[in-house]
Amino acid sequence: MTPADARNRWQKHRAEAGALPADIRIAVAGSMTAEPLEPYLGDYLLRRAFRNPRVSFGPFGQIPQICRDYKSFFTEDTDAIVLLWRLEDMFAAALEDPAALLEALDAFAAAVRDLRENFAGTVIVSIPPYPSTAAFDPSSLDQPAFGAALHARAVERWISRMQQISRIKLLDLGALERKLGTDAAQDPRKWFLYRQPWTEAFWHAAGRQLGRIVAAETRSAKKCIVLDADNTLWGGIIGEDGMEGIALGEDFPGSAYRAFQKHLLHLKNKGVLLAVASRNNEADFFEVLDTHDAMVLKRGDFAAFQVHWKAKVDSIRTIAKTLNIGTDAMVFIDDSAKELAEVQERLPEVVCLHAPGDAADLANLLVGSDLFDLAEVTEEDKKRTGMIIAETARRELQDTVSEEDFKASLGLEMTVFAAQKQHIARVAQLINKTNQFNLTTRRRRQDEVEKLAGDPRCRVIGMELKDKYGDYGLVGVAILEKKETTCVIDTLLMSCRALGRDAETAFIGVLAEQAAALGCKTIEGCYIPTAKNAVVKGFYQKHGMTFDAARDVWTMPSTATADLPAHIRVTRIFGDAP
Amino acid sequence: MSDALISLFSEVLDVPAESLNDNTAPGNTPQWDSLAAMRLVAAIEETFAVRLSSREIMKMSSIGFARRTLLDKNVKLDDAG
User: Fewer CB near the terminus (10 Å): N or C of chain B?
Assistant: First the structure.
């Protein structure tokens, strides 16, 4: 798609949208004229299923003023503010003096911090590209020692300052210039005529990249890639060519299949699930997977396998069911146009990608793709495949033995601890999304949780669980508040993932111990019913607490050593615990 | 008059082709503002595969001027649109 296509589509949309209300409002402030961005950003967002994006522009060259007082420039309902700036526009006077430049960057960073504190929406800030002034001439002989070194220092300082402010999204303008080639990205005529340095091709690329950042906030990423095996994970057909005959190794074309596998592994490590749907003999396929030296992906990197001679549509449906995700969150990659067409017809919501016949092209199939864009990758995302494999193994065991034997054989280990800085994001995530096993359903922002964790009258407690199959992660949260000699359970919740293990019984026991450690005689909590938390209605009663109808709370004495379930080994990490 | 250049201006300015002619200029066309001027240059360069000098861009103060500039560059305008 050319820049002209994007501009024409945007213009057509603008003519037709009429009085349609905007569903996303983006305000852009530039150190240069930034208006050429509008059609490209707008058109990209239309293609990401926004109905009527609105892109507006602040006066050029006034970024610091806009940071200090954005409301004087942009409307209250703005969803995202974008700051596009270059070193040579904003700091021309300091540009050749390293100390002055770093100082100026720090002052600018303070202005961005002001904006972040006063504006609740998304803030996107550019990383400045390599300056296009005479002193930075890329072909000058002193460029490596001067220009390259200074730009690198400035960029490093800027990124670290931005990372010290929470929730700033960065856009690397220099990387976009490099991708196109500087000569194809810059247009000196336009700088002199319009105060903007770039070509339409550059603005096109910048609009898409900015649109990806904006869309990642609210548009869900694909969760799973379903892969064909022959001519997709390796070259050739295992059933015909055999272990020696397939292309997979250090030489082309085998090296290109390895490169593709490395890209898949990278995505898997960011939380994308990989699955195989291959029409093959099971034994042939697993022989390659488990014994071929050149396979980058191992059995443990895949969340599900469907290797047989049945239709791919059925395989994809089965994988979706196994992984408990919708088929609309799936991407299917196959070299056969016929298989792709069949899946596309019967499951139109699946994104179908053709594995190109030229292996060199296959290696780049997913480079630059926006299908897996996440606003933020959490630790839980990174562990996803391992957790799913563990859960599959547990389910197999559960089907063969009694409930008691099942729990006993898991080898459960629980760690209960005072939440530290590194736990706060996950604790806040659980507080805000746990619906079922949640006694009070009190929602809190991350900064509120952080404040409670530092309050001496409170305890923000996390609970992690693992067993012989793997890690469940941080799955339980409690917030205790000391009120004289009573310890009040403000919040008590557990992720569904940890249910059916008696973990909740061990957890409330440790909380009763903590109440004693805090110097309280009793511990009490209330059950606040919601549409979704009936599962915990009888929780306090089941754990021996008595109901005080007058105050609508459940209460029991605190205890120095609680009686915990025998099949869970509990570790307590509290500074002042017994 | 309808040719490739008129349809280009019509599309970029979002003005019907019938109301455009060689005398159309920023002064008599409110849609032809400074941002539209930027878009016009981009569209002309892409559509006719030419590169305009900054002097030519500055001089492009009517559709007639644009036509002369392109004809000087041997661009054929009359067989399309």
Answer: N
